[in-house]
Design a protein that fits this description.
The chain has 483 residues and is an all-alpha fold. It is 85% helix and 0% strand. It has 19 helices and no strands. It starts with a helix and ends in a 5-residue tail after the last helix.
Length: 483
Amino acid sequence: MSDSLKNKTIKGVGWSFLDNLSSSGITFLVGLVLARILTPEEYGVMAMIMIFIAVSTSIVDSGFSNALIRKLDANNTDYNTVFHFNLVVSVLLYILLFIGSPYISIFFKEPLLTDLMRVVGLVLIINALAIIPRTIFVRNVDFKIQTKISLISSVTSGVVGIGMALYGYGVWSLVGQQLSRQLLNTVLLWIYCKWRPALDFSKKAFNELFGFGSKLLISGLIDTLYKEIYSLVIGRFYTPSDLGQYTRANQFNTIFSSNLTTVVQRVSYPVLSSIQNEEERLKEAYRRVIKTTMLITFACMLGLAAVAKPLIIILIGEKWLPSVYFLQIICFSGMLYPLHAINLNILQVKGRSDIFLKLEIIKKIIGILPIVIGVLYGISYMLWGSVLISIISYYLNCYYSSPLINYFPKDQVKDILPTLLVSLFVAFIMWSLTLLDISNFILLPLQCFVGIILSIIIYEKLKLSEYLELRKMFLNIITKKQF
């Protein structure tokens, strides 16, 4: 990896991490406050709505943003074509949700859903307006502006949500937080982005981009449906409180797993796409991304599982105690999620969206099993089933992507095995401290301190290249050499 590309990647990772920290991190902290005010039932009702919003959002994008990022010579005609398509689709989907909301309410046996869905659905149109400005910033690996925007919109929407909750608006406070965040984010993206739409739509550009993006659309839609079907099953066959507990556990998991994946994907995809025709350089860059990413992921996810109980009790209270066991299980499947995404990135970089789609279909057919188990035997059995599916999915992703860059499953496992073993050992020591009869307020910081110090000692002894790379990156960041 050349110095310029390396510096660009490091800067991108740093600002993208800060972007996710300011967006999801602040939103998560606001969620902790809201979780103490609101009930698991109210969170469960909001989760029912977000199932349909997530699926609709996937359709609105239609894989075009990734197609634009990958296209080396994307121009204003391409941007205008995608912009108008996204906007029209978002309006049509909102109308569909508006009409269908009473039936969704009947399905979940929750009267509030009709009005809630019709208001929250506006997010689809708001987000559609932001897709092109956001894509332009990602293409340029420019996350500094996005970080500022995320910080402003997250803090402002947090104030709105907490204020509404304190005044007794219940689940509507979550709606207010969601809408204000997305609206302000979109407005600020347009203020900072110099691009402006024109009445320009090219059928040729649409066909070219959709040829690649359509397969990603179907793949993304299948993936989103599969993720949301867990909430759908819990919401339909169990209580809103159960769904609220699961949702809360999953949000804790998201702080590390999904956000880290988002950071890596947002930065690595445009960077790797820029060297897609340089085989050796691409392989080396890809290998370094996997090793450094998984060191952080294994440490965070297994550490989170170890501290789950005192963490949840301290942060959001004992009424959320049932979510502890859910979170611990989710951590084991979530720790492989960044690895799935990175392997799938190569398929997109190489233009093999056909294999991407094929993989999604195969994995989701296999993934039906834990969902059936969840309906018949309970939520925890369903989540353990998802751990097994996560392992199988990783192998499939790696098996199909590895020949494209000559980086095969056994090589990947060999590269990440040392950090996995270190993280398992450290997490076990951290969890063992829960056997001590001490206050949670003492236990949690003690676990974190032991975990961090023990990890540093072991990695300093092992001198793994990924650890040395991360240490150097961290030192550069705190001394502001890279910013």
